[in-house]
Amino acid sequence: MKHYTLEFVSLLFILLFVYAAVSKLLDLGIFQSQIAQSAMLAPYAKALAWLVPIIELLLAVLLFISYTRVWGLLGSAVLMFGFTIYVYLIWSYSPSLPCSCGGLLEAMDWETHLYFNLGFTLLATWAWYLKSGNKRNDTLLLIGDFGMLALVLTLFFTQPQSQILQDESFTRTYQKGVLEEIASQKLAFNSYYLAGVNDSLVYLGNSTGFTHGLVWNYKTGDTTHISVQLPDAPGSFVSSPKWQVYGDYFFIGEGVGPSLYRGKTSDWIAQKFMPAVPYYSDIVAIDTTEFIIRARQASTQKNVLATYVNREPYVQIQDVLDQDSGNLLQADGTLVWDVAQEQITYLYFYKNLINHWNRDFSNPQTTTLLYNLTINIRTRQGRDGTYLRETTYSPFHIKLRIWNNKYYVLSDVMGANESLDVFTKNSTIDIYDNNYLESIRIPNKNKERISDFYITDEHIIVHYVTQVVVYGH
């Protein structure tokens, strides 16, 4: 029984390592690009793109040969332990980073991936104990695991920080005085995101447990945990659905499957309501049965915007974004619906402009932002159609909100004569109408910068990773 158990475990790891290594080598460029998305590994992306699959194949050979199998199992245990620590750090601190495992393993979410790696670590360790028998040397395992732990933690704590971009061509005018903190709410998880704000109610979705949410009334301080019910949903989704609140309604879905559900915030029960749901990478509701989506057009390999309604033709494509064919990340950005002006608004992450259109994409307009920065975003396409940056870039700006016909842009670019220390200890929101007006400094909390925000007449609702804070303005 011991013999057959070891044979089975060894075969399992051989299949795992050969499959993962071959998947990486067949698409080496995209694997290198995936590694480069991680700040922790980016400086070593080129070397790791070769080193990881070579180590996996070497371990497969050691496991295949009977008299070297004990070393193969030891190496497997140490390698899987390193993968487990890496995934834990990425999942805990950078959950949006892409997986770089190769093949079917990319379909796992980060939590599943963590438990998968942990399970295989324990399996390899147990098999090594069985194979070693009386000749077992626990010191070797401890040295290997501690060495791997030290390596991963060293890479994590010495990873290069995002480069702060500076443009000396403009000077900001900051609002005077300090923002008054009105209320705050600690968050138990770092996976919450802002799903909407209605009056004094702040709605928070959860990216890892998509049916769970939190409603916080910042005037009374009351919090309510909610559970979204999807009675006609499938057993599983291709990617984790996200939801957003629109008036008395909420919408939840994901664009890879794709799927879209609607419900009322009075009971949090959502059901299918739209025909022929298209694939999408971003979506905003402009009515209870009308949406604007961003999607990739197969014929041109470009990002396009489109209206999606519940009558034929359900989708009307608009090729209005500024980009070269096949370079999707040139048009990377975020969609916003301006309720007051009934305008579709698009903020580019890597360009110095905001585009606006009427509801039917007529009357195109442009708001030029402060900067004169330009970068060349080169992308690489994998065999599965995935596009990734060949190198990492800090976006110029990452969020846009509209209030009283003004555009509030969360910026990551320093202007002339700004202190690096002050800039990095605060988040900066630039305010525009047709031209630049002024800027607001919002202090970091527990060394956390703003991840999202909403604007009301009296308040700025700010989402940090582990808390929500309401400021008066």
Textual characterization of the structure:
The protein has 473 residues and is of the alpha+beta class. Helix content is 27%, strand content 32%. It is built from seven helices and 28 strands. The strands form eight sheets. A four-stranded antiparallel sheet has the order 2-28-27-26, with no helix packed on it. A hairpin with a 5-residue loop joins β9 (259-264) and β10 (270-272). α3 (45-64) runs antiparallel to α4 (69-93). The longest helix is centred in the N-terminal third of the chain and has 25 residues, at 2-26.
Helix and strand layout, with pairings?
Blueprint (H helix, E strand, L loop, with lengths): L1 H25 L1 H9 L8 H20 L4 H25 L16 H23 L5 H20 L7 E2 L13 E7 L5 E7 L2 E6 L5 E6 L5 E5 L14 E5 L2 E6 L4 E6 L5 E3 L9 E6 L2 E8 L4 E8 L5 E4 L14 E6 L4 E6 L4 E6 L6 E4 L10 E3 L5 E3 L7 E7 L2 E6 L1 E2 L5 H5 L1 E7 L3 E8 L8 E4 L3 E5 L3 E6 L1
The Cα radius of gyration reads 25 Å
Structural class: alpha+beta
Biggest beta sheet summary: 4 strands, antiparallel
Number of helices: 7
End-to-end gap: 72 Å
The gross shape turns out to be: globular
Largest sheet, spatial ordering of strands = 2-28-27-26
Low-pLDDT sequence parts: none
Strand content: 25-35%
Portion of residues in helices? 25-40%
Question: How is the quaternary structure best described?
Answer: single chain
DSSP strand count: 28
Compact description:
This protein has 473 residues and is α+β, with helices and mostly antiparallel strands. It is 27% helix and 32% strand.
